[in-house]
Amino acid sequence: MKRLLLSAVAAVSLLSPLACDLEKTGNQLAADHVMVGTLLATPQVDVSTSALAGYDAGTYGGPDGGDVVSFPGETAAFLFFGTKSGENAQPEGLSGATVTLQAGSAAAVPLNAQGGGSYGVTSSSTDALTYASGATYSFIATQGGTRYEAQVKDSPTKEAITAFHPAEGFVRIAANTAFSFDRPAPPANQDRTLGFVTVVPVGSDGQKGQATYSNAPTTPVEFLQLAAVPATYREARVTIPATAFPNPKQTYLVIFQAVRMGGAESDNLFLGSVVLAGTSEVGIFRTN
Description:
mainly beta
């Protein structure tokens, strides 16, 4: 864990515009409070009954395309707020904080306590939570009169994946077969965003099952690892393993999240803190 934290510090130092402020960076390195946060948006997805049944989808997506099962879009914000008592210690969650998410000068959106230092909210529970490309998002926790802030700037736009949208309307693939796709080149003078993939099966009744694959971090330690080695998630070619598509005659949603990483903004927050903001592209896959 010691090497992990130090590597995360080195990586974030290179990425952070605060790295030139040595005094502030030194304070952040010594800080014992840590944040891990995400703001992720998923668009509405319309799946034709043809895709669910595996039939020809020549009219998929058209105004007369027949029955469609719709999965509403959703935006979700999550924050882990905790302390680390030493370089080799696992972060421990802090309860009782007031936590908000704020986009620029817009009104702050409260994140609800979920226990163990976790706080979150979704757009299904409040209309105030939305996602806007190009925004600066601040995750703010206040406890005992002290304010802690992490920030991610220039939230990305949806990354269009051509391979997700064949003429038929969905991708046909043999079960237990890997699938590779190419990401578009980033704009000039910009680093490629991080990319996370999640695969979710969908039943013929339109019910989503448990994910069969995801490379997205889920724990505070995995987020620290992400800060240490972000290049793994920036590769131009992405391969989804065969195990993500285990069952024949099954429809899957492949969700690709393009996210930008930020970190500690206030000097009382550990430099290795990681916050992410992004939005997703979705492909519909059907196994033979």
